[in-house]
Amino acid sequence: MQEFSILAPDDWHLHFRDGDMLNETVPATARCFKRAIVMPNLAPPIVNTKMALAYKARILAATPAEHDFSPLMTLYLTDNTSSEDIIEASKAGIVAAKLYPAGATTNSDAAVSSLENLYPVLQTMSEVKMRLLVHGEVTDSHVDIFDREKVFIDQKLSIITERFKDLKVVFEHITTADAAQFVLDSSENVAATITPQHLLLNRNDLLVGGIRPHNFCLPVLKRNTHQEALRQAVASGSNKFFLGTDSAPHEKQQKESACGCAGCYSAWSAIELYAQIFDELNELDKLEGFASHYGPDFYGLPRNKEHITLERHEWQVPSECTLKNGESIVPFYAGSTLNWRLKIPQ
Questions:
Q1: Enclosing domain of residue 231
Q2: Is 157 contained in some domain?
Q3: pLDDT tens digit sequence for 2-51
Q4: How many Å apart are CA 207 and CA 191, to the nearest integer?
Q5: Structural domains counted in the chain
Q6: 101 to each of 98, 135, 141, 219, how far by Cα in Å?
Q7: Among the residues of 62-107, which ranges form H helices?
Q8: In what order do the strands lie in the sheet with 11-14?
Q9: Residue 144 catalytic?
Q10: Which of 15, 239, 306, 332 minimizes the number of CB atoms within 10 Å of its CB?
Q11: CATH code, 285
């Protein structure tokens, strides 16, 4: 097969950042995705409807005129989030709210410290049919970083899904066999996104032969047995797993530092990376469901009507992308050869 077409895909989890960075990140996503769930962990975080709509306007201003792209906005849950905040946001078209355990990832210091205090908000979210997006890790210092997803499932997520049975929950960027099995065993109201880096890499790719900062993300890469479990999850064709890149750009100097930032900037070649993965698995026929069907179905949104075409053509992910301020970003999989590329209509 030299080319194939799928319904235009969506990215159900990414970080655009803000300011001048939008001029790089928004076009990179809009070139192949029709919609994207936009993470709210800016500084300060997007905690109310007014802030979300203002952020949406900035994203749309950075969208090239030739692309029909819709950002789907989210709220950042804090200890001070109220049910009234959720109702207002839902009426304004905000589709989800994000639960970060405090300190779990970039700009998450203002996040929820007591899950129990959030129960009234979760009940309201269930009633207005707003999706709950979960960064599934505990942040207790005594819990090993490679075990934090499993502990979160046992101590937090299992309780949420049992207590709020009608609440639709997306377990974001899952990284372990435990998470994949939890999602499969849960009701139809629980689904998960999976990133390209967690399908392509394991912790050897982060640590063997020296620390590789551009493969560092949170949740951190796990052992190869977990990587294989995720690959089998997407290969299964289950509608509980769908595309979410967790594309998270940082300037090169912030990644290559004594305390490098977490995040892989995969938007630049995202759909091609997923095509590479499904091709390796001999499951290219499953890509359309994962990329274009299961996400909108779970969110109760219509599937896209347009199509994109991918063609078999070897090309190399560039070593760097230069921002307008002169700084650079190293894209995920920089320097690697991919076998598929987006075919641009003539």
A1: 10-304
A2: yes
A3: 999 999 999 999 999 999 999 999 999 999 999 999 999 999 999 999 99
A4: 30
A5: 1
A6: 10, 7, 13, 12
A7: 83-91
A8: 11-14, 35-38, 70-72
A9: no
A10: 306
A11: 3.20.20.140
Please say whether the dihedral angle defined by the alpha carbons of residues 281, 182, 144 and 47, taken in this order, is positive or negative. positive
Does any domain span residue 320?
A: no
CB-hemisphere CA count at 13 Å for 43? Answer: 5
Q: Which residues contact 345 (CB under 8 A, 6 or more apart)?
A: none
Task: Report if residue 337 sits inside a domain.
Answer: no
Q: Does residue 220 sit within a domain?
A: yes
How confident is residue 118, by pLDDT bands cut at 50, 70 and 90? very high
Q: Return d(Cα 177, Cα 205) in angstroms, integer.
A: 18
SS3 303: coil
How many helices and strands, by DSSP H and E, does the chain display? 14, 14
Catalytic residue among 18, 166, 246, 285: 246
- Beta carbons within 10 angstroms of residue 107's beta carbon: 17
**Model pLDDT for residues 167-222, shown as the tens digit of each residue:** 999 999 999 999 999 999 999 999 999 999 999 999 999 999 999 999 999 999 99
